[in-house]
Amino acid sequence: MKISVFVGASVDGFIARKNDDLDFLPEDAEPHGYEEFYARVDVIVIGRKTFEKVLTFDAWPYQGKRVVVLSSNAVDFSGIEGPAEHMSGPPEEIVAKLASDGARHVYVDGGVTIQHFLRAGLVQNIIITRVPVLIGEGIPLFGSLPRDVKLQHVSTRAFASGLVQSAYTIGTSG
After folding, report:
1. Which DSSP letter does residue 11 get?
2. Whose CA is closest to 91, among 60, 67, 70?
3. 44 in a domain, yes or no?
4. CA distance 51 to 44
5. Exposed, middle or buried by CB within 10 Å (0-12, 13-18, 19+), for 4?
6. How many domains does the chain have?
7. Would 166 disulfide with which of 8, 9, 55, 156, CB 3.0-4.6 Å?
8. In the beta sheet, which residues pair with residue 69?
């Protein structure tokens, strides 16, 4: 099973403001590969805070995909369009459950969730799209790690809007 991250961040490394606002992300940016990436995944794993944030969007962004919300508390899925479920436990248990259910490619989203899966050594690919803005403070993409996580650069693309996207595979920790 493949586990990937596709995330946008400010140049100073924040994925959201401290109040979880995403207003610095461009709404009118040119296509930058998200649709193609999304078409290749079959399960989205998100944390509760990310789930609550996407519920405020005009439309449910995970159409046609199985969504797993990680939380130690019950989750209300009323009003969700599509398959969604609640799981809890360490990332290794979540991955084992998804693998036993036949998941092939998992998209991990949300700051804390991404950090937990990285710390557990479960992410194989990461695509980071840098938004040309400094927001000064917010929710960091990366938190503390128990060891270095070596990245193998795959590609970098620059877009007319100023977005810069880099793709990496995760190597052996050192």
Report:
1. T
2. 70
3. yes
4. 11
5. buried
6. 1
7. 156
8. 46, 86
Domain range spanning residue 76? 2-17+31-170
CATH of the domain at 43: 3.40.430.10
Residue 18 CA: distances (Å) to CA of 39, 128, 135, 140: 30, 20, 10, 9
**SS3 label, residue 117:** helix
Task: State if pTM tops 0.85.
Answer: yes
Burial classification of residue 33, based on how many CB atoms lie within 10 Å of its CB (0-12 exposed, 13-18 middle, 19 or more buried): middle
The residue assigned the tokens 């995944």 is 41
Residues 6+ apart with CB under 8 A from 144: none
Q: How far apart are CA 108 and CA 127, in angstroms?
A: 11
Whether 148 contacts 174, CB under 8 Å: yes
* Pair of tokens at residue 107: 């998209």
Note whether residue 57 is domain-resident. yes
Q: Is residue 22 part of a domain?
A: no
Give pLDDT tens digits along the chain (174 positions). Answer: 999 999 999 999 999 999 989 999 888 778 889 999 999 999 999 999 999 888 888 888 888 899 999 998 888 888 787 788 999 999 999 999 999 999 999 999 998 999 999 999 999 999 999 999 999 999 999 888 888 899 999 999 999 999 999 999 997 544
Cβ burial of 111 (10 Å; 0-12, 13-18, 19+) is: buried
